[in-house]
User: What shape does this take?
Amino acid sequence: MKYVDEFRDPELGAALSGEILSLVEPGRHYKLMEVCGGHTHSIYKYGVDDLLPENVELVHGPGCPVCVIPMGRVDDGLAIARRENVIFTCFGDMMRVPGSEQTFLEAKAEGADIRMVYSPLDALRLAKANPEKDVVFFAIGFETTAPSTALTLKRAKLEGIENFLCVCNHVTIVPPLRALLESPDLRLDGFIGPGHVSTIVGVRPFEFIPKDYGRPLVTSGFEPLDILQGIQMILAQIAAGKAELENQYARVVPYEGNVAALRVMSEVFELRPHFEWRGLGFISQSGLRLSDAYADFDAELKYETPGVRVADPKACQCGEVLKGVIKPWECKVFGTACTPEHAIGTCMVSPEGACAAYYQYGRFAREREVV
Amino acid sequence: MTLAVSEGAECRVGSPEAGCITCGDVAVELDVLLVDEGRGLALCRDADDRRESVEIALVGDVSSGDRLLVHAGTAIVHLGPGAKAA
Assistant: This one.
């Protein structure tokens, strides 16, 4: 397929692989984090890691929004979803994320009116079609998705649709990266920066990584050659003793991001003082809530929710996977008690989750043979 | 061309095997078929002619034939007339 095959060309991949090999020092171990779950998915789908030298390790970051949502937030959503007068809506992956007692899908099977939507606009359409009910949208996602929710709320306000409400779980990408860089558990040599988040926020917000922490970050696209080239650019910087911000995905990502999207986000949302991330704990100013101007649409203000922090199941090691401390296959329940069909942890739910990506593409068998 | 675009098209675009198109950091490229300037929506299609109505408020002027990068029903990048991100 034109414009796709060029980015999956095996010969170019082999050439990049050779360049990467020439850039690494034998005996030195390189640990690079791909921030975004979309990158994780591509890496295991296309076998990008097979083209890397053994001493270049890819660590999966916290950039899958489903994976980082804590159980307590799911319980809050369930408390609203079970109400008689509510049509509760969420994205498909969210349906299977476990709360402390059940998932949205299980609550739906018990009779709650929970519906999967593909966009917030779908939820708004439901609100218009069902004026006698409250239609609640369980919003998740990073800055890529938040503008879509913001625009929908603006549209609801403009059109005077009063039965559309939102549980806002949107998060921002920079605070968890800072938390990871401060973590004593993890030593990283560089970052493959998020691609589509950066179309919104731009490249500028990541300047602190080279500046304050001396680590290179290269914003990369999602095709296999994009990722390989991103890795090559990071390793070239390290070989030259540099730590800079580079944009491999410049054909899509503008340096300043999408100003209109940032403007609508700042109008509709404001930062929460702190927000809980699965595996990373509470991180200051990392989550969004609706601004005062949109308080009428805030389901958390209208409905009582438990608001309780729920510990992850003991067997689940999603937290360590999300911090890159262990590989998915090193989790005690990976591929046995925890599978995509019966996920214990969130990383096994979304295709962008590191565990689901490993599982789906059969990586666990190979890795375990190595062990 | 400016025509009324229905909100919430039933047919959805993007390949499930490519991952979660709505909640991950994943976006799909769509071609614009029709623009409803009054409501800020465009009817778009993917390479397999699956169609979806898309919010276009964030990407400036849009015309039929343009290519957009779309995430969760919202265009986030204008890739130009017939442009391609990959």
